[in-house]
Amino acid sequence: MTQQKNFGFGEDETMLRDSxxxxxxxxxxxxxxxxxxxxxxxxxxxxxxIWDQDLWRQICELGWTAACVxxxxxxxxxxxxxxxxxxxxxxxxxxxxxxxxxxxxxxxxKACNTEAAVTALGHIAEGNAASLAITNEKGSWEAGDTDxxxxxxxxxxxxxxxxxxxxxxxYVVSARDNxxxxxxxxxxxxxxxxxxxxxxxxxxxxxxHIQFDQADAVEVAAPGxxxxxxxHALPALLCITAADMVGAGEWLLQTTTEYATTRVQFDRPLGxxxxxxxxxxxxxxxxxxxxxxxxxxxCAFEEEPDKAEQYARMAKxxxxxxxxxxxxxxxxxxxxxxxxxxxxxxxxxxxxxxNQVLFGDAKYQRAKLADMLxxxxx
Length: 378
Fold this sequence. Notes:
Blueprint: H1 11-27, H2 30-37, H3 53-61, H4 80-93, H5 99-112, H6 115-125, E1 130-133, E2 148-151, E3 154-163, E4 170-177, E5 180-187, E6 193-198, E7 207-216, E8 218-221, H7 226-262, E9 264-265, E10 268-269, H8 274-303, H9 305-333, H10 345-357, H11 362-374
Parallel strand pairs: 1-4
Antiparallel strand pairs: 2-3, 3-7, 4-5, 5-8, 6-7, 9-10
Helix pairs in contact: 1-4, 4-7, 5-6, 5-7, 7-8, 7-9, 7-10, 8-9, 9-10, 9-11
């Protein structure tokens, strides 16, 4: 099977992206986000979950959360590239919201292919936020790695590194019993659910570990079927995270380029000097490569499913490397103000650092690619 022209990015996807771009330009400028989440520079401040719930409701009314939900569940039924476009724009604005976490949950629930999963997808289409609780204490999210157990429809144990945990209305949890890994939905306010925030560098998101103490759960993938659903959804998770990094990288490049053309040193704009302009060109090339790989992988998710994981790992590896490079160059080329709290660059720098390790950094992805293409080491 061959891919569609332009990675399947058609008129509907273009309109969705353009509307998102305008929405963020009108409501989420860098200075506004900085005032919102970086008001307090004290490193000993309490861990907070800061976001604009009114803007989130507007996003839901615009249909973004329903974009990739199947029509049978009340959604729009758009392909993964639609979510990629929205994730890219969200990353470009460093927007604090559960949008990325909800997209990830959407594709895991779609992979379950059960009536209960369709019901949960309907909740997302209605504007409820969701997040994945599939990672164990060691930081592994690989199918089968979970510290949560299930018995008689109740969950016990702890899920770690849950993204935007305090913004979510419910969680998609992987849990184990004697028959294997299953997937379950649990309401965030259910009895037996304790959310403990983690201190992270990314000011635009929150993270937590969640303890389940005999918490009531709804089975969306039976024990033994959950691992396969997670594996099927993995390329989508990698692509969505990569798209967020691409968007943040684009903001960092544009902002740093503008600074280099206006900041004068030795009677010349900074951009005049090869030590500045050549690395900025390299940043641009890295962003273009990561973006192309991401959209290619997103299209393959529906058009070439046998290649989807390979392409998605390539995209995540490229985006993770780009994230580090774009962020470090932005700080360096802003000179003495680049590392200050008042400079907006640090919001995007921290978001890039957080994203580049989610679901595995570049080194991890390349090791997985080597196993896929050459065979696992004995």
